[in-house]
């Protein structure tokens, strides 16, 4: 969810392919049935290995197998442009194939809006939102920026001197940079942003001194934070979290939350979609998944069926509005 960049426009009309009426029926059925045993499951990750979507896919696979809900999980990667090429590939290659799901989230909605993609979320069926997490604003350990106050002051006086880096162009990391600039009254044209396919690439660039400030998911930065390779200046939650002060508590009036979930390809029948929803519900209820959430510092944001389909529709509209307001697209 987004805040601090103005009210979103009214929700668009019902998206073809999302099938809200069908999703409501699926959700009702999922509430009364447990997930049946799966055969092999393929997870399409439209991002690089080591990215947040990859972390989510691997945590999901670990919990599914530990809970004996799935016999085998295969991974396939199609990185680039916030998942837009991967989405098109998923729709074309896996239409009608019931044992393949795509791991995606809010980042893709921003990338679709920025790239004006012809293949969008109307072509897939939302199954379930699984997680929500905050972003962190980080700097290399030896950075002269010792606090968020230092960064805010620099952005007000010499914004072009700050080299930002984060995830895909148009994604939540990019949005947060723009929202910070808007809150500090910095013209968007004066902000510099370098997109990366995954958190690992971002951290490598920071280690080489190629960036001044990074924006990424807390879970993706945790190892680097724990090792002291980078320092956190702020977190994007509304309140302080994980020992890190929020942007709002440091005078930057904005916040943003990133979510990730599962999507099915087009061409599945209602029974096949129900099976995926039941699997997601069983995953969400498993102790193994609870442990993964805790380990990765993710919030449980489980929503399935019609509520998730409606969320995707609304957030797609919101992403377009935010990118327009921030002059990012």
Can you give a write-up of this model?
- The protein has 329 residues and is α/β, with parallel strands linked by helices.
- It folds into two domains: 200 residues, 3-Layer(aba) Sandwich (D-Maltodextrin-Binding Protein, domain 2), CATH 3.40.190.150; 122 residues, Periplasmic binding protein-like II (D-Maltodextrin-Binding Protein, domain 2).
- 42% of the residues lie in helices and 22% in strands.
- The strands form three sheets. The protein has a six-stranded mixed sheet with strand order 3-2-4-12-5-13, with helices on both faces. Strands 8-7-9-6-10 form a five-stranded mixed sheet, sandwiched between helices. A two-stranded antiparallel ribbon has the order 1-11.
- Helix 2 links the parallel strand 2 and strand 3.
- The two termini are 19 Å apart.
Give the SSE map.
Elements: E1 2-3, H1 20-32, E2 38-45, H2 52-66, E3 70-77, H3 84-94, E4 100-105, H4 106-115, E5 125-133, E6 135-140, H5 148-157, E7 163-166, H6 172-183, E8 192-195, H7 199-207, E9 213-217, H8 218-227, E10 230-235, E11 255-256, E12 258-264, H9 270-285, H10 287-296, E13 299-304, H11 305-325
Parallel strand pairs: 2-3, 2-4, 7-8, 7-9
Antiparallel strand pairs: 1-11, 4-12, 5-12, 5-13, 6-9, 6-10
């Amino acid at each position: 969810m987004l805040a601090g960049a103005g009210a979103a426009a009214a929700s668009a009309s019902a998206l073809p392919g999302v099938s809200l009426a069908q999703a409501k029926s699926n959700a009702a059925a999922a509430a009364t049935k447990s997930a049946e045993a799966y055969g092999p499951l393929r997870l399409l990750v439209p991002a690089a290995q080591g990215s947040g979507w990859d972390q989510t896919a691997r945590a999901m696979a670990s919990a599914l197998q530990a809970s004996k809900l799935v016999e085998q999980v295969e991974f396939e990667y199609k990185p680039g442009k916030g998942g837009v090429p991967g989405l098109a590939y998923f729709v074309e290659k896996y239409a009608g194939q019931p044992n393949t799901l795509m791991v995606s989230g809010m980042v893709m909605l921003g990338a679709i809006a920025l790239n004006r993609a012809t293949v969008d979320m109307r072509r897939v069926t939302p199954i379930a939102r699984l997680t929500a997490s905050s972003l962190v604003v980080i700097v290399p350990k030896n950075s002269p920026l010792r606090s968020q106050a230092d960064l805010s002051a620099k952005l007000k006086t010499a914004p072009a001197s700050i080299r930002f880096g984060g995830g895909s162009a148009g994604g939540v990391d990019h949005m947060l940079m723009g929202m910070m600039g808007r809150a500090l009254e910095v013209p968007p044209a004066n902000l510099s942003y370098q997109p990366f396919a995954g958190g690992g690439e971002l951290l490598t660039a920071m280690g080489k001194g190629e960036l001044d400030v990074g924006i990424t998911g807390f879970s993706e930065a945790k190892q680097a934070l724990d090792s002291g390779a980078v320092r956190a200046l702020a977190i994007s939650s509304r309140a302080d979290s994980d020992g890190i002060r929020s942007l709002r508590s440091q005078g930057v009036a904005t916040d943003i939350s990133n979510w990730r979930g599962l999507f099915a390809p087009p061409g599945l029948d209602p029974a096949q979609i129900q099976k995926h929803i039941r699997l997601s519900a069983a995953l969400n209820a498993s102790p193994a998944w609870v442990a993964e959430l805790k380990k990765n510092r993710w919030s449980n944001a489980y929503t399935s069926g019609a509520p998730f389909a409606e969320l995707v529709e609304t957030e797609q509209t919101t992403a377009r509005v935010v990118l327009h307001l921030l002059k990012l697209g």
